[in-house]
Write a structure and sequence with these properties.
The protein has three helices and no strands. The chain is mainly alpha-helical.
Length: 74
């Protein structure tokens, strides 16, 4: 996304177009409200966790795909 200032329904339309996802116009405002509330904190957490002091931190839970596990793949 070249313009990080794009917000609201315009951002939702742009993201849906990039992902080739059909999104009815009446849903744009609901999705926009969710993204506008969620993204600032998600970006702040991402920035924080990118700091040198967290580089060696790894999740305690490893999620596996059941189909891959059935075939001995990890």
């Amino acid at each position: 996304m070249s313009d990080q200032r794009t917000k609201g329904a315009a951002r939702v339309r742009m993201l849906a177009a990039y992902a080739a996802l059909p999104l009815p116009t009446e849903r744009e405002s609901v999705v926009a409200a969710t993204l506008d509330a969620w993204l600032p904190d998600a970006n702040a957490l991402s920035e924080k966790m990118s700091a040198e002091e967290y580089r060696d931190l790894v999740p305690i839970t490893v999620l596996g795909h059941p189909e891959a596990e059935d075939h001995g793949e990890h």
